[in-house]
Amino acid sequence: MVFAAPNEALARAEELLGADPAPLHASIAHQVIGIWQRDFGDTRQALAHLRRARDLAARADSAEREADVLATLGVALVHSGRTREGLAAFERGVARGSGHTRARVLYRRAYVWWVLGRHREALEDVRRAIPVLRQADDVIWTARALTLRATVHLALGAVERADADFTEAEALWDTTGQEHDKADAVESRGLAAFRSGDVPTALRLLDEAEERYAKLGTPTFMLTIRRCEVLMAAGLATEALAEADGAIAALDGIGGQSTRKAELLLVAARAARLAGEAQTALARAAVAVRLFAGQRRTWYETHARLVLIEARVATGHGSGRLVADAAAVAERLAAFGAPAAPEASLLAGRIALGLGWTADAERHLAVAARSRHGGPPLARMTGWAAQALRARAAGSARGVLEACRRGLDVLDDHLMTLGASELRARATAQGAELAALAQRASLVSGGPRRLLVWSERWRATVLTAPPTRPPADPVLLSAMTAFRELAARADDARTGGGRPVPALEREQRRLEREIRSRTLHMRGEAPGDGDRFDVARLLDRLGDDVRLVELAVLDGRVHVLLCGQGRVRRFEAGLLAEAEREAEHVQAGLRRLAHPGAEARLPLVEAAGARLQELLLGPAAAHLGTGPVVVVPPGRLHRVPWALLPALRERVLSVSPSASSWLRAKETAPPPGGRQVLVRGPGLASGGAEVPELAGRYGAPEGGRAYPPSAAGGYGAPGGAEEADAGRARGSRRTGARPGATAPDGGRTRGPQAGGPGDTAVGPPDGPAPGRRPTLLEADDARVPRVLRELDGAALAHIAAHGTFRADSPLFSSLRMADGPLIVHDFERLDRSPYRIILSCCDTARFASVGADELLGLVTALLPLGTAGVVACSAPVNDAAVVPLMLALHKGLDAGLSLAEALRDARAALPGDAVHQATGWAFSAFGAA
């Protein structure tokens, strides 16, 4: 019972001891309490109870009982770090037991061998145990032994053998009531899925196992270790570090197993290194090495030394001693049969190359390169990285590019197995080194065209295919509905001058974790080879007038690739770090200018724009011609207000995450019918004044609803299923706004009559035209399910709502609707997002830069879903100044202009004061519509 119902088993064992039992029965009770304390509590208490159980078994003169207790004691001793004593206990247990009992002792010793990383000894003991357990028809222990053997196979990279054992063990568990072991089987299948490269399935199974353990009250330290490994492979290293550190604190709090602490420290060190926290990685790895050494766990100690060396290299160290250390680690890992051996050889070769030791580097890299032809995707990428470094050392640019191409193809295939756009974006970090190597080789030998191809090869790759549509999961949909409701209640508490109830916030965070977790479970649908970038096609679409400026960053310096007039030219600009600092200064200036009274800062902001131009465009600014310009910046420059740069200020200007993305937007056809949607969210300081003004301008009489409901559902139509409901609003808002703002023609903004708006069909200023009757959603109509239904497949959507950017979780960035936040996850449920979208609120053009060169945010979520053009804002802006900008923007669209053309003209139409100028600069046009 101690695994199936641990707390009940503990209570019954204590009750039995209270009845003064015979030594044999008392031995069993103390053993049960010892197992409970070993796995769920304090290992010191566990050892005391197990030693008492051993002594009582000896008094009862039962050799079989004593052998069984010695096996349990051996496991506890090893977990407490007393490896020599633990192995000695097993020796006595094997000698005292016989037949069936000895098989159980051998199984537990095999488990200890696995804990110690001595896999060959583990396989030998479990090989001896399984036939005896089968013969005794011991279903539970046979299933445990098969699960253990599968786990050992996984550690050695034998995934197919592991799958066979897991499958057989699971069939046996189905015949028992051992809920703990059933949960362990689910966890093991998750591990197997991970080792085979299936990250979404691994996350799903590990989450399922965690739910099962929670019902049993079972600690999940081993599960945490495995989950952290999967998170790291998915590019979520920061989350893995937080989980590992939290588990270490919890384990210390209960005086738990020393072995588990060492393993958690190792996984925390790896996560810290991948998250770029080299000093943290050094500290965690050093402690892990000491613990593993004291526990005589050479397998794990060697892995910890590998992370320690990687962390030292990351802090800038490189020496002959480190080359030797990495080579020794690689040799030991290879002797163990550990899959990480090529990684260590790659590290040794990389350090040697840095020192100029080409012969040593070639020797180590050749060993690492062998892994490129087999194994899981990330192992093959290690091999291709080694092959690329070999080619670079040999001076073969062609060899570098071929190896990088093959390695990135492997990663492309891996990314397509991931359904969640967040996972795809973050996992691209695995290819950053290959992309950088290819760009350097292109710069040296291939000219600007080749550099453009390789810049595009690894820029905004997540946008090349739409994310997998979230499943119609009732649990997910229910969680999103509940989350939206809670977020709305919390926001009401904040805006009411109070603070939300802590219980609300806790539940909100729990639901957010559940939504995100279920989203990460989605498997991708590989679309095939995809559409490869073609420079000639790009130049043909640009023609003679349009210039596309792609900024590539190599070794910290910005290189400008100027495309147009049938050619690609390269210019060197400034340092990326300096440009990032200047962009932050500009953002701070724009925030100040959103408030009246900061006019004196306008010249400072304009001067900063001139400095940004020098750093980002350099001499290329003089070669832009006179036509439209498309800027393709790297992810780290997404905060730049490009319209502020002097050379771009008066131009038709658009921004795109990649040249490929711009091409797709350019070639995207608008949907038939030209359906338009106007949405006004609650709580705006200006009341979203431009929305009723637009409705009135297009032909609706002031204060009324003159046109019938739209075919999409009509006024008063039920909201439908609460699909895709989730989000979190934090009250980010525009500043200094006032209701009834003055329109450019001097008139006042107009609102609907009392009682709420309907779907008002409107047309251009000279009267409504068929197919040009927008749906107006405001007040209670502006609820997320209704808004999503109307947005799906629209030609144009204008949304005035509070925008909130979530740097901690970008896909929970939101627009506030009547019933709560409309989040990025909601948009991903659309069959086709609107062809054009205007977002007249703050922070909608903010992104999180993740992975190799990816952006996560509202705009980048829309572009793969059918949206060809977006107007959005990257800074807090003034409400009153937004209204005339938006009205002027729509005037240009009515005249047949593109978003970029209309935005240029709208900026020019604004008054010349600082507030209006800053507002115009804060908005950008994305895409090509």
UniProtKB/TrEMBL annotation:
<feature type="region of interest" description="Disordered">
    <location>
        <begin position="659"/>
        <end position="776"/>
    </location>
</feature>
<dbReference type="InterPro" id="IPR024983">
    <property type="entry name" value="CHAT_dom"/>
</dbReference>
<feature type="compositionally biased region" description="Low complexity">
    <location>
        <begin position="703"/>
        <end position="712"/>
    </location>
</feature>
<feature type="domain" description="CHAT">
    <location>
        <begin position="607"/>
        <end position="923"/>
    </location>
</feature>
<protein>
    <recommendedName>
        <fullName>CHAT domain-containing protein</fullName>
    </recommendedName>
</protein>
<feature type="compositionally biased region" description="Low complexity">
    <location>
        <begin position="759"/>
        <end position="774"/>
    </location>
</feature>
<dbReference type="Pfam" id="PF12770">
    <property type="entry name" value="CHAT"/>
</dbReference>
<dbReference type="InterPro" id="IPR011990">
    <property type="entry name" value="TPR-like_helical_dom_sf"/>
</dbReference>
<dbReference type="InterPro" id="IPR019734">
    <property type="entry name" value="TPR_rpt"/>
</dbReference>
